Amino acid sequence: MGLHHTKDSRVKQGNILILGLDFAGKSTLWYRLKCNDHFLTIPTIGFNVDMIETQKDFTLTFWDVGGQQKMRQAELDESFSVS
């Protein structure tokens, strides 16, 4: 997880990367944390990105990466070389 503070902003930012094998429950965990509820999910193709802003000037960005073998390394290489 990365945490940084920019000079021109008082907002602190963090990144959380949710990784795991296919059908491990990564998206289910994320929806449970975000909504405090259980949702029926389908396999993630690629990745989902969502942000939460707290009342204390803190922003968390969640990256939920699909767990299929063919997606794991390709998505990580492409996504995090840009960010």
Automatic annotation (TrEMBL):
Binding site for GTP: 20-27, 67
A Pfam family assignment: Arf
Highest taxon, organism lineage: Eukaryota
UniProt-listed Gene3D superfamilies: P-loop containing nucleotide triphosphate hydrolases (3.40.50.300)
UniProt keyword Nucleotide-binding present: yes
Keywords tagged on the record: GTP-binding, Magnesium, Metal-binding, Nucleotide-binding
Annotated signal peptide: none
Molecular function as annotated in GO: GTP binding; GTPase activity; metal ion binding
Keyword set includes Lyase: no
Residues binding Mg(2+), per UniProt: 27, 44
InterPro entries xrefs: P-loop_NTPase, Small_GTPase_ARF, Small_GTPase_ARF/SAR
Protein name (database record): Uncharacterized protein
